[in-house]
Amino acid sequence: MLRIKDNVDIPVVHKLLVGFEYLRLKQLEFDFVILNEHPSSYLQELQMSLEEQVRALPKISDSGGSVRILRADLITPAFQAQLLSVARIVLDATKSLEERLLYSDLMFPRKRKIIQDKTTQTEKSLSLPSLPDLEFFNGYGGFAAGGRTYVVVIGPGKTTPAPWINVIANENFGFQASADGSGYTWALNSKERQITPWSNDPVSNPAGEVFYLQDEETKILWCLTAATRRDPEATYVAHHGYGYTRYERIAEGIASTLLQYVPTEDSVKLSRIQLHNLSGRSRTLSVTAYVEWLLGTSRTQMAQFVTTEIDDETGAIFAHNRWNPTYGARVAFADIGGYVTASSGDRRSFIGRNGSLDSPDAFTALDSLQGETGGGLDPCGILQTSIILPADGRVEIVFMLGDAEDTDKARHLITHYRTADLDQVLHDVENKWAAVCRSIQVKTPDRGMDILLNGWLLYQTLSSRVLARAGFYQASGAYGFRDQLQDGMALVISCPDLVHDHLLRAASRQFVEGDVQHWWLPQTGAGVRTHISDDRAWLAYCVAHYVTISGDKAILDQDVGFLEAPALPLTEHDSFMVPSISAATASLFEHCARALDHSLSVGRHGLPLMGTGDWNDGMNRVGEHGQGESVWLGWFLHAALTAFIPLAEARGELVRVAQWKAHLVALAKALEGAWDGDWYLRAYFDDGTPLGSHTGTECQIDAISQSWSVLSGVASPERAAHAMHSVLQRLVKHEDHLILLLTPPFDKAQPDPGYIRGYPPGIRENGGQYTHGALWTVMAIATLGDGNLAHALFKGLNPIQHSLTTERALRYKLEPYVVAADIYSEPPYTGRGGWSWYTGSAGWMQRVGTENILGINIQGNALLINPCIPEYWPEFEVTLLWRNTRYIITVRNPDQVSRGVKRITMDNIPIHTTNSVTMKDDNLEHTIEVILG
User: Fold this and answer.
1) Segment 356-391, tens digit of pLDDT
2) 673: alpha, beta or left? (left if phi > 0; alpha if psi -120 to 50)
3) CA distance linking residue 590 with residue 644, whole number of Å
4) Tens digit of pLDDT for each residue in 578-597?
5) Highest CATH level, class, for 141-433
6) What's one Pfam family here (predicted)?
7) Entry pTM
8) What does the DSSP assignment read for 331-360?
9) What kind of architecture, by CATH, is found in domain 856-932?
């Protein structure tokens, strides 16, 4: 783009037009925009001169690209800013090309350094924030507040082995907060609408949001967190809690607290900076907030399109990316309470040429922040305010980072939260998470188990998997068809309305033929259609689970639409598209039934077709030609049909029920045909080669075929028990606290199972611990009645156990307070965690602990109590909040057994059923005593 204001600069236009045509001759395609900024009284004369120059341009190439002449007086300022942002080069006609070549050297003059790097006083003695007593402290952190908070201590020479983060979200907005202060913020979609950048870099873990403090007298500069400008001698403390993270440090005689959270509904991140002057003298400080705008998926792709402005009404900084086809009308904003002393939207001028956030140029010059905003900049948001803090004085500064549909709604959010009772907002957040977590509270002899079951697993499931759909190692933003359905199974008691709504949401992503989108983006509906075979069956399985627990049969009659799209050819594994919404609708029951009907096709061995993956997406070539069969899917489909048939019988679907029951009989016979001598096969390739057989050299045994032979209840009891014994012998590494998915790992053998073989042996699904599948192993062991072993395996999966000591934490690396998706099993990385937070393992671990080991199950208004615990546990207690009524359940084990209920009393009245209590919602508190024996 060339900006021109005067006829005298026409020679520059001529040179650039010649250069434009020369580059076209070299096959470089681009558009050349000339912006006529001449005052309107003389504009026409310059306009005619420009048009004459363009007409005179010789056409010597047929390459693409064009010349456009635009009049500044005929386009809006916002459009001008957008033009400046998308232009790769912006030239000013008042400067010759020679001057432009020298301009880069003139832009970055060396500035006078006025930052002091070292403390000159005795404030070092005040450098350690006070710490609470910590449970399971491992040298890096431990639990506080009864296990509800994890406190990370980053001391001199230490940092966490990997980023230890918190995921904080409501339905439309959220952020990640690392213990060192890095992280990112998003709105609506954690991948597609990143407000600040998601790094996915566990080594450097760069910060996209930073808070600086500077003493205006000494010029000493420091940050509130360890991610940026870290003091190697200081101690930084981070508290990760349900719905908030709080950072603490003491530097230069100033105690600082940074408390971050999002309201329960609004799209705004509140950062409350509290400062306490401990230095004994009055201090003049500047507080500077920095955010690195993204407003898309990739900064390298989106930065050039971002424009910024200072809002006249609020003084906040607004950021737009009008080039984004989905979110172009939205506005992101940053605000520091309206008390702005300096600001900027230009990252380059803030950090300087080849500079960094550790030592920005803006703090080394007297004319630091000049308020640069608009287009064509390296976009960021910088807001600075100054304060005078007397000795022992305290002050709170509130920084807001948010997102809105338009500028008016952004202004509304800003003005609302400037005057809101932020303590009450935090209280509402705490109450929200307390309501989720207090649905079930346990007290057992295993304190680590208590901590996970009393909140962290439910928090991980809801915050990361359902609301954010993101973790440090994956920013998805999408719904996975089977993923959130399974997550919801753990949330039926605590969040029944949320589960209800998601079941209907998932059903709406079903094609009229019965198959479903494997994953989809909720804002656009774009997603993938695949030949993966298990997705659709999870709908019926999870609906049956929800109805059983909640008693809500009315959901089956709710009308839900379908999708339409061209059929996916067998030769294609998947197709990414935006399907159309069909005019056809049906009840949720019909959606489930159609999904099951679509799953009844079998191969030559009478087993379900595998397609391009069943539960294990990585086995995408086992059945890619339409002939491969899945043994695991046979077990699971049997379980899904068995769970759903009673619902169909109650609706009089006799023809379907008869068909399904006949299929169950044939399927049970075919599954027994997959017995390999000591365990069940995993699958058959398209050519009939068995997978998961002792005759192979790789993947001789797979855990989930064995566990689901038990969980489905259809296998021969003797064979199922023998298969699980083989799992214990071949797949459980007790010394490393690992339960492998399969062994030996895939490497070179044929046939090729799929992309699972692309993982190194022992990594993720390829022979590592895939915790989702490992938990099914624990479920199966508990179902078989071995409480000692079930608890031992469960305890081995607990991340607290993997991080008990500094040595273990260094090996495991991941957070001790959330469960990992996978753990590596091969040297030299044995015991190292793969990724955390965004895993379906959290929901399954919650269920295994409460339902299978502690034996607490709900069916409508019936409470079933059937524990499978270690024989050496003397007792345990469960507090269950069912609707509006509290049940305190004490289970005593005087005979030192693993299972078996001898008697039950409720409110001191004997219950005559063996292990079932009828609950009533009377807003009272009831006590239940269970005696095992």
Assistant:
1) 999 999 998 656 688 899 998 999 999 999 999 999
2) alpha
3) 12
4) 999 999 999 999 999 999 99
5) mainly beta
6) Glyco_hydro_94
7) 0.93
8) EEEEESTT--SEEEEEHHHHH-TT--TTS-
9) Sandwich (2.60)
